[in-house]
């Protein structure tokens, strides 16, 4: 019985990883895992896919910063400069 439970947990490991990491494609990973992980190659692919960086972590917020970017890392522009009005 314990061996069966461990096998099921191992089989579904890519799904658990994707859900725990909040992966954007978690539903697709779960479906792929359930349908094709019976092949070892499908299980490895599902695990690698679940470990890829979710796309939402690299989006720009309304403040213009990337997720996790510090204020000092932002590019600065001087909107008051003469360059923006065509003057030199």
Descriptive notes:
The protein contains 4 helices and no strands. It starts with a helix and ends in a 37-residue tail after the last helix. The chain is an all-alpha fold and 88 residues long. 48% of the residues lie in helices and 0% in strands. Helix 2 (13-21) runs parallel beside helix 4 (40-51). It is globular, with a radius of gyration of 22 Å. The chain has a domain at 1-53.
Secondary-structure map with pairings?
Elements: H1 2-11, H2 13-21, H3 26-36, H4 40-51
Helix pairs in contact: 2-3, 2-4, 3-4
Mean pLDDT: 79
Quaternary class: single chain
Q: Could you list the spans in which at least 5 consecutive residues all have pLDDT below 50?
A: none
Helices, by number, come to 4
Total strands: the figure is 0
Summarize it:
By secondary structure, this protein is mainly α. The protein has helices at residues 2-11, 13-21, 26-36, 40-51. The longest helix is centred in the middle third of the chain and has 12 residues, at 40-51.
């Amino acid at each position: 019985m314990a061996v069966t439970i461990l096998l099921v947990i191992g089989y579904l490991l890519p799904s658990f990883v994707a859900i725990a990491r909040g992966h954007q494609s978690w539903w697709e990973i779960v479906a792929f895992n359930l349908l094709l992980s019976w092949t070892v190659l499908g299980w490895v692919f599902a695990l690698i896919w679940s470990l890829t960086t979710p796309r939402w972590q690299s989006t720009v917020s309304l403040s213009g910063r990337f997720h996790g970017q510090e204020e000092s890392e932002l590019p600065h522009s001087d909107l008051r400069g003469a360059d923006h009005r065509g003057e030199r």
